[in-house]
Design brief:
This protein is mainly alpha-helical and about 240 residues long. The protein has one domain. It contains 7 helices and 2 strands. A two-stranded antiparallel ribbon has the order 1-2. Strand 1 (about 1-5) and strand 2 form a beta hairpin. The chain is globular. The N and C termini lie far apart (about 45 Å).
Length: about 240
């Protein structure tokens, strides 16, 4: 049992082993994929960012998906099932959410005043909700930027029109993702961790980020129906 100084949290040693294992697998998969997309550039340049980032939470499962359906070059005659386009589009959204959440949580940890700017102590009594606000804003900005990078070349849009279409295509998807992610993290931080360990998982712990990996998978699940609807309506382009 390891006590986290100043928090009253006691984390069993096995949780660190599990957390570092899952984080390590995700990091190794991300680094391998980063090198692979450099050797085999995807037809859509933005996927050079998306594929490695999604490995951080998806690990071996997303690596299999990339090798089977995302890696270039693919046979021209190969038909991709509809679920592959949905999963790819949802992963594209998830890359923005992942980057936003990682940068946001790290920013608040390293620059504590960021939480106050986001409403800690004024709008929110609990700093966790201020951190989530930072995460959401960054996830939205980065997600829209990635969507812009995908949608403008496909539709040959002018910058202003491209930005409007990117916002329309990604807003619902991002919100649906964050609902799932925040929902799981709320269960962990407000219920499970206090009951099991005596307090919340510190942001600077491997256990916190392992929980975030799981929360990202829940976010993928809650965002998938939104992406199905967006693709069927033609608001998002198949990837």
């Amino acid at each position: 049992m390891t006590a986290v100084a100043g928090t009253g949290v006691h984390l069993p040693a096995w949780t660190a082993v599990v957390a570092w294992t899952t984080l390590g697998i995700g990091l190794v998969c991300a680094l391998w994929t980063l090198l692979d997309v450099a050797r085999r550039p995807p037809a859509m340049p933005v996927m050079r960012v998306v594929w490695p980032v999604t490995m951080l939470f998806g690990g071996l499962l997303w690596l299999w998906f990339y090798l089977r359906w995302g890696r270039e070059p693919r046979p021209e005659s190969e038909r991709r099932p509809g679920w592959v386009s949905v999963a790819t589009g949802t992963s594209h959204c998830g890359a923005g959410c992942t980057l936003g959440d990682v940068i946001g949580e790290t920013l608040v940890l390293l620059v504590p005043g960021t939480a106050a700017v986001a409403g800690a102590g004024t709008l929110f009594r609990d700093e966790m909700y201020a951190r989530w606000t930072v995460d959401l804003v960054l996830a939205f900005v980065i997600g829209v930027a990635l969507q812009y990078a995908a949608i403008v070349p496909m539709r040959h849009l002018r910058p202003g029109r491209g930005l409007a279409e990117a916002v329309k295509a990604d807003t619902l998807s991002i919100l649906a993702w964050q609902v799932g992610m925040y929902g799981l993290m709320a269960i962990v931080q407000l219920w499970l961790a206090p009951a099991w360990f005596g307090g919340r998982l510190p942001v600077a712990s491997a256990q916190f980020w392992a929980a975030m990996q799981l929360a990202m998978l829940v976010g993928f699940a809650t965002s998938t129906p939104a992406n199905v609807w967006l693709l069927r309506r033609g608001i998002k382009e198949p990837m």
